[in-house]
Design goal:
InterPro entries: AB_hydrolase_1, AB_hydrolase_fold. This is Pimeloyl-ACP methyl ester carboxylesterase. The protein is α/β, with parallel strands linked by helices. It has one domain: Alpha/Beta hydrolase fold, catalytic domain (Rossmann fold, 3-Layer(aba) Sandwich). About 35% of the residues lie in helices and about 15% in strands. A six-stranded parallel sheet has the order 2-1-3-4-5-6, with helices on both faces. Strand 3, helix 3 and strand 4 form a beta-alpha-beta unit. Helix 2 packs across helix 3. The longest helix has 12 residues.
Amino acid sequence: MKILWLPGAKCTKEIWRYMIKDWEEEDNVFVKYSHDVLLQAKQVMDITKDVYDRYGKASYDYIIGHSMGGKIALQLCADFQMRVKGIIFIETNLRPTAAFYRNLLLAKNSEVKDELMSMLQEESIYYLDALNKELQETFDDAYLVQQANCLVYGVYGDRGLPAYPDRIHDLCLDADTLAKLQLFFVKDSCHMPMLENPDHLTKIIKGIIR
């Protein structure tokens, strides 16, 4: 099983560090974004083109992307026609969401906060304002789900509220997009489930690819 792993914005490939122990097969490729490319990237597509140039000639069974990495995964399949069995995106907002999804970590998971914030601050110097704006304000990427030539799975943290009735509604997606998505929720986590609850996230991913 060959998997391409894509980190989120301002994250390095080490964001997966708590999960790598469960994915030791040599076929797993953990992407590192080029700082030279990031320094010039005005839109996510600029990063996607570089990822495709460096990794797109190989074949993969799945592409797994966190946050911005999920959008890159969708662009790789929708715009560059990479052929995979499925895309698994984690905490990728396809449209601006309701407030329920706008948090980084649960308070009880604060032990990883200092390390996480240090990484985000170190990487932030490579991100142009135009790219930050696209990631935070001016985006509607739901169409990519329709254009992807494979199965698409969305994974989100449950924010510690597994019974919250509007968790799907608050993704702010249309019915056609939701119909093509298979959604899963990681217990006791927010935007960083690979840090907050890596065991449950791993269980979900392995369940999908099996």
